[in-house]
Design goal:
Number of strands of chain A: 9
CATH architecture of chain A: 3-Layer(aba) Sandwich
Protein name (chains A, B, C): Hydroxyethylthiazole kinase
Oligomer: homotrimer
Number of domains of chain A: 1
Order of helices and strands of chain A: HEHEHEHEHEHHEEEHHHHE
Distance between the termini of chain A: 13 Å
Family (chains A, B, C): Belongs to the Thz kinase family.
Largest sheet of chain A: 9 strands, mixed
Mean pLDDT of chain A: 93
Radius of gyration of chain A: 16 Å
Number of helices of chain A: 11
Cofactor (chains A, B, C): Mg(2+)
CATH topology of chain A: UDP-N-acetylmuramoyl-L-alanine:D-glutamate ligase
Strand content of chain A: 5-15%
Low-confidence stretches of chain A: none
EC number (chains A, B, C): 2.7.1.50
GO molecular function, one term (chains A, B, C): magnesium ion binding
Chain lengths: 269, 269, 269
């Protein structure tokens, strides 16, 4: 890295380029709402997505994948078992895996599933402030999938979670906070209109999975993925009438993002 | 209301504004095809969507929500049980709930599930003419999700259904008919190209849910939601090459819709 | 046909027009990721899509449909049973059905389900080279949903599969190869950017279903559907910044495609 502790813009570009060159296969056990946008975001950044959940094949598939993304958005006991099987296979193989604890805190079932998966020590957890506070057992005011706490408030919770997992925890919001306890990166970017498109956070988690597959350092991978996602979202929002435009432009921007844009636009501190 | 019986354009705007200001949480137990567009339409009008169906949490979640939308598009016994649980919780709490009886009449299973849910007296039923005729036990010619009866023909059926539910019944088509028996509103708007985009009706039902959460009078909420949806669709279709454009423009229009547009464009009689 | 063995551009247009005029009802038992794009592609070409999978109604629904499309993208035992029931009903009625063996070869479960469905002799099988090689028991290098073999390499496998099914087998890639053993059409078209949009192949299979419903000759139907899909994709990609644009433009192009464009743009040899 340009700096001994945090990724710089050249590192972000190096990560983006590594994903494009490597085309990692990202195995998603994710929610019904997020599947389409997640798959398209992964394709746009140069990765190869797969959505596989049957108990009969989820382990076999995890053996082929370069990373796993588990998202609890639309839970059911059958899918939770798929998640368990996939996580165990990923852990056994040592590939990185990302947990997106959608709406943790909204119901006790959801909080319990989140806690169980967390105990398997995800390489990266990516959530909004409410979700991260809830997972850390601190007071979250989450009432669903939309964040109602500021991400800055959740830094303490993120550090506590990272202590538990030994991995990276990212709290996304106006400024994304990414920590592995030792290092904490603040990633600026994105646009408020992104919150008016469903599954944006889920798609960001999927992209984190792709980056974590391509780059050895999970903090750098996570911060880079979020920097790229935010930058693309920011550019997509420029001149957008509304969320309909933003959604497809985001995919275009992720696909077409150039080195000069990343070098000029990355804001990590 | 401007008029003692039917909402006027100022009422429609007041409803739209109430949704934007209140940001109601809308709980959807809906079909796989409609999840993405429904969630995005809800976000575009200023509501907060959640798709939650596990038996383990569907009741807990209904307790957080401001409205419930149940859509039978992609049925299975497990999901029907989710619907039952969610409907009971919504009824117990007294929050409004919307039934979208997708393709009722196409199979006996679907007709039977529709009838069972209807018996729980939804605040609003929104369907096309074939679906409403089928639910009312009158001759529907439905062969799937697309309407094959004119909505005007279904007024009698809508009134009969509203008698059963004690709520509002909306038949969407070239002109939408919305009745609570006492009052019947005809809402003009929309564009034929909307029928070439999947899940448009489902998304309209979701938006009805958001409006019913924000406004006390279900007839006004339903007519207003359909007026706004139709107006946005009409504007989105202007100059659109085809259904691809229409879909994202609809979301932009729902998001950006202004008071002056609603005041000038609403056509309710 | 213009030629005694292969469809010409006039035949392709005749097929496209037959779909628009007939509006066939296409029953899909397909994967969660593909539902939205498949339904929208079917609507864009003038067909009527339905996604129905409950064991309680899948047979009833197959009786209403003009074609069936079975896609194994997101498998589970419960859905496999839906596929079995739907395939049997379609076969009993003699309506055409299409098998899309997504990621066959990636896991043994997937390969086994593909083989079982194949034994029911689909009217058309549409896959990429890896999937077709795997289904034929030849060496596929598939590691997921994206093709890693050239479609030309798979011609031998396609002919072998067509021998088993007695139907048509299509291998899509840079040039699509469509064979019924007796005749082999090479359909040029499409654009590399299409591979960066999820569920493109699935949507092509759905459109093949619509064409097979409207036209008696499965080879002509399949080649025509792929020619139209490729042509629309090619035009959609022209000037597209990235895959976000491509996706919605494809739907616009499918919807708006004119006779002159088809006559000038079809490249079948």
């Amino acid at each position: 890295m340009a700096d001994s502790t945090l990724p710089g813009s050249a590192d972000v570009w190096a990560c983006a380029d590594a994903v494009r060159r490597g085309g990692p296969l990202v195995h998603n056990v994710t929610n019904y709402v997020a599947m389409d946008l997640s798959a398209n975001a992964l394709l746009a950044v140069g990765a190869s997505p797969a959505m596989v959940h049957a108990h009969e094949e989820v382990v076999d598939f995890a053996l082929l994948a370069d990373a796993l993304v588990v998202n609890i958005g639309t839970l059911s006991p059958n899918w939770v078992e798929s998640m368990r099987l996939a996580v165990r296979a990923a852990t056994d193989r040592g590939i990185p895996w990302v947990l997106d604890p959608v709406a943790a805190g909204a119901t006790s079932y959801r909080t319990q599933v989140g806690a169980e998966l967390l105990a398997h020590r995800p390489t990266v957890v990516r959530g909004n402030a409410s979700e991260i506070l809830s997972l850390a057992g601190m007071t979250g005011r989450g009432k669903g999938v939309d964040a109602t706490d500021e991400s800055g408030d959740a830094l303490e919770a993120a550090v506590a979670l990272a202590q538990v997992t030994g991995g990276v925890v990212a709290v996304t919001g106006d400024v994304d906070v990414v920590t592995d306890r030792r290092r904490t990166a603040h990633v600026a970017g994105g646009h408020p209109l992104m919150a008016r498109v469903t599954a944006m956070g889920c798609a960001a988690s999927a992209v984190v999975g792709a980056y974590a597959a391509a780059v050895a350092d999970p903090l750098m991978a996570t911060a880079s993925a979020l920097a790229v996602f935010g930058l693309a979202g920011e550019r997509a929002a420029t001149g957008a009438v509304g969320p309909g435009t933003l959604r497809w432009r985001l995919l275009d921007e992720l696909y077409a993002l150039e080195q000069s844009t990343v070098l000029a636009g990355t804001r990590i501190s």
